[in-house]
Amino acid sequence: MTQKGLFLTFEGIDGSGKSTQARRLADVLCAQGREVVLTREPGGSPGAEEIRRLVLEGNPDRWSAETEILLFTAARRDHLERTIQPALEAGKVVICDRFADSTRMYQGLSRGELRPVVDQLHTLMIGREPDLTLLIDMDPDTGLSRAKGRQGTEERFEDFGPDLQHRMRAGFLALAEEFLDRFRIIDGNRDVDSVAADVTDIVMQTLR
Ligand code: ADP
Ligand code: TYD
Q1: Would you say the CB of residue 12 lies under 6 angstroms from ligand 1?
Q2: 154 in contact with ligand 1, CB cutoff 6 A
Q3: How far apart are CA 114 and CA 42, in angstroms?
Q4: Nearest bound ligand to CA 63?
Q5: CA Rg value for the chain
Q6: At 175, is the pLDDT very low, low, confident or very high (cuts 50, 70, 90)?
């Protein structure tokens, strides 16, 4: 398969502004006349949205850490087959709020050292990385208070609290070193417009 589109992902801790920036970027690119698919994980296809409800609501201890990795990967496989690949083949820009790097971090680090399992399953079942990953880096405590400001039933990972947020922040920065060619780090400790300006600059460079 020859890919004509561009696959962009946003990553970062809870409350870092990923969803806000993904929407803003989609608006900018649409206004330029590009075909854009704005999507998210877990979710992004009907089947994957069903799995989202399973993993983000209810008692998290009803799965082992390994089962949880399988569920997130199952959701991703469906999302890739049904939403991401068809859009890329049609030449669209896919903007995805979280992708496999989130599994590397949350399932790979939060309940034991399971990163090798995450990576093996990724190779077997997903086998694709984004063309560009925008990491919105920010102070973990600010991120947590922003995330907690949102009301909702999906509190699964935010519930782990400040310690996890700090570890995830460090983990994402290490991941950016590991995948230097596709990661760009953006300072999220600023107002929405300033962050969005950086996002647009970086994406425009990639599109050129
Ligand atoms: P994420 O998707 O990374 O969890 P959101 O985009 O949902 O983050 O943002 C979390 C909360 O913080 C939302 O209420 C959003 O309006 C607010 N927010 C997002 N970006 C900023 C920013 N740069 N400054 C202040 N508040 C922000
Ligand atoms: P999301 O809706 O992006 O949350 P937020 O807007 O707070 O960043 O993602 C929901 C939660 O799912 C988030 O706490 C991170 C978690 N998650 C994983 O644990 N593994 C994954 O592979 C993905 C995609 C998300």
Answers
A1: yes
A2: no
A3: 19
A4: 2
A5: 16
A6: very high
Tally Cβ neighbours within 10 Å of residue 115.
16
pLDDT of residue 160: 63
Neighbours of 107 (CB within 10 A): 25
In angstroms, what is the span from residue 10 Cα to ligand 2's centroid? 11
The rounded Å distance from CA 17 to ligand 1 centre is 4
Alpha helices in 80-157 (DSSP H): 85-89, 100-109, 115-125, 140-149
- 12, 136 contact by CB (below 8 A): yes
Share of the chain above pLDDT 70, in %: 94
Give me the CATH code for the 6-207 domain, please.
Answer: 3.40.50.300
| 151 pLDDT above the threshold of 70 | no
Residue spans per domain, the chain: 6-207
In one-letter notation, the amino acid at residue 12 is G
Burial state string for 116-144 with b = 16 or more CB within 10 A and e = fewer than 16: ebbeebbeeebeebbbbbbbbbbbbeebb
Smallest CA separation from ligand 1 atom 9, residue = 17
